[in-house]
């Protein structure tokens, strides 16, 4: 069985809609809910975890243990960091890092021992790849965005690298498929609260588009 890990309620609602899931097919568990589907003769469990590292890791560990998963695919949205890319571009990162685990004033931003390299060689190269950086807060402030850019990060989110790390501990393969839902905007010469509301609205508008693109054009190649 392969697990598809989904963080937010908006991402999960788009998933339920995409697969036409009926109420009686939805099951609760301590971190959210899940449903089962068979695609190309492979059994999949799609599960929501809630946001941030603790929920992503807790929910994924629960599902690895309950269903004896052989692979976890982290599917969802992310912030764009590399400005060569645009909203709705989809990535399958070959490296996952965490950037909120060091005293960055005196240590490197990226925690070396938490880096996970992802071997994508068996899946070809017909997709964007790069480095995803995870922390327990969203990339909203311009200074955080610039710091990630300086560290050659491609995209950023709030769960994926932590899930990849615990998959490695369980010797379970982890693939991350993430689409850009939003880019931070420079709030320094404007109202930072208004700028934040605009970014959240862009995230909400793009979430179903990203999820539909992941399920329609990417998922089957990685199961
Ligand atoms: N900018 C982002 N930075 C990091 N992760 C992002 C971003 N965008 C999307 N994600 C991904 O989607 C989910 C939710 C998105 C989220 O929390 C968010 C999005 C936009 C603004 C704000 C805010 O507080 O103003 C919060 C997370 O689980 C994460 O995995």
Automatic annotation (TrEMBL):
Q: Which residues form the Nucleoside phosphorylase domain?
A: 2-203
* UniProt xrefs under Pfam families: PNP_UDP_1
Q: Which GO terms describe its molecular function?
A: 6-amino-6-deoxyfutalosine hydrolase activity; adenosylhomocysteine nucleosidase activity
Q: Which residues cross the membrane?
A: none
Give the EC class as a word: hydrolase
Q: Which UniProt keywords apply?
A: Glycosidase, Hydrolase
Q: What is this protein called?
A: Adenosylhomocysteine nucleosidase/adenosylhomocysteine/aminodeoxyfutalosine nucleosidase
Q: Which organism encodes this protein?
A: Fictibacillus halophilus
């Amino acid at each position: 069985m392969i697990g598809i890990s989904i963080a937010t309620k908006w991402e999960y609602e788009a998933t339920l809609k995409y697969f036409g899931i009926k109420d009686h097919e939805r099951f609760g568990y301590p971190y959210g809910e899940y449903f089962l589907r068979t695609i190309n003769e492979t059994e999949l469990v799609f599960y929501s975890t809630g946001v941030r590292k603790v929920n992503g890791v807790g929910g994924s560990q629960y599902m690895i243990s309950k269903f004896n998963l052989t692979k976890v695919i982290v599917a969802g949205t992310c912030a764009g960091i590399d400005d060569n890319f645009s909203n709705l571009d989809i990535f399958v990162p070959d490296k996952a890092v965490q950037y909120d685990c060091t005293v960055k004033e005196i240590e490197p931003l990226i925690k070396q021992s938490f880096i996970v390299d992802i071997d994508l060689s068996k899946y070809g190269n017909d997709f964007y790849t790069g480095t995803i950086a995870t922390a327990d807060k969203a990339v909203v402030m311009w200074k955080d965005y610039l710091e990630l850019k300086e560290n050659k990060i491609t995209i950023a989110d709030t769960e994926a690298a932590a899930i990849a790390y615990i998959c490695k501990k369980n010797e379970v393969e982890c693939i991350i498929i993430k689409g850009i839902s939003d880019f931070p905007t420079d709030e320094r010469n404007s109202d930072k609260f208004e700028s934040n509301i605009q970014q959240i609205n862009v995230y909400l508008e793009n979430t179903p588009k990203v999820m539909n693109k992941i399920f329609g054009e990417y998922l089957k190649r990685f199961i």
